[in-house]
Amino acid sequence: MLFNIEVDHGHVVTGYFVPDRFTGTSVIRIEGSGIEPLTFECNETRQSLVMAGRHETGWCGFRLDQDLIPGLAEMQDLELYDPETGVVLYRRRPAESIIKQKLFRLETHLEPLSRLDDALDGSFRFFYKGMEQFGRETTTQIFLLDHADSIYASGRLLYKQYEYFLEDRGFRPICLLRNPYDELAERLLILSRAGNGDADMLGARDSMSLEAAIEFAASIDLSDEKQLRRAFRTMSAEDAFTFADPLVRALGARTPDETPQDSTMAGALEVLSNCAVVGLREYPNLFLEGLGAQLGLEAKKLPPVQEPPEVLRLGQILRDIKPVKSLIEHDLELYDHVRAAMEKAL
Which domain of life is it from (predicted)? Predict the structure, then answer.
């Protein structure tokens, strides 16, 4: 998916939208105060899209004016989005109500911090969460948006794959880390539920890419410590790779199949050193205070970050299983490094 706004002169808005198909006319959804929501077929061609092989006809451009949308010039909550996926293509927000920053929160958990993201939606002109479900082209396009001096995005991505675009467009990363044993515990719980029929636990992309991990987790009674020990002692190389060092890989790996090396660890530390805010779930209030200071918001207005009791219980059991330590040794090293630095600063 490709999209961008070319101009917004208030009374005229032009841009283009290329959906995930090569043929047909692009369609956008338009909403705003004082108008009935409407579905609009793009009304201009962009020959450059044809020449680049992105669309058969190039009939993906649009021009919105006050004949189509009465009061367009005064409208402060205009929103354009893809009616099929819900991805926001463009939106206006009152200038006095938005934070003029470009932030990307690297999601390091399988269970996303959606409440935290949602609490910040109204503070930014552009807002995207769960970007791991978008696909690489759409994700890259979001980072390259024009007229986007106020944007908040989050997703469980490989940071190094997008590092150039993030740095080139002035994004500041945010990252919240968790004890790797507890993160593994939560992943096992989520994957087990997904494998036992809870379809809402994972999106379509995760359900496909984590199929082997889902089967592994669903085959274990997670309340049975003997089963857990046996499962990790005898797990296949494929399963081991799926669970190994997700934090270091998210921060330092350039490809999904990269095995963490010393260089991966170095890359992960470099990313963290450039973050606007780094937090630990052991110290949730410190993270919220840091995030609030970055955004100019009171920390108490942000939702608390809490650890589910079942995650902590299973995490404690995993700490006593030796093969688990080998599985996440790079993540443990990175986490201990960050925790030591943070506690030294307290």
Answer: Bacteria
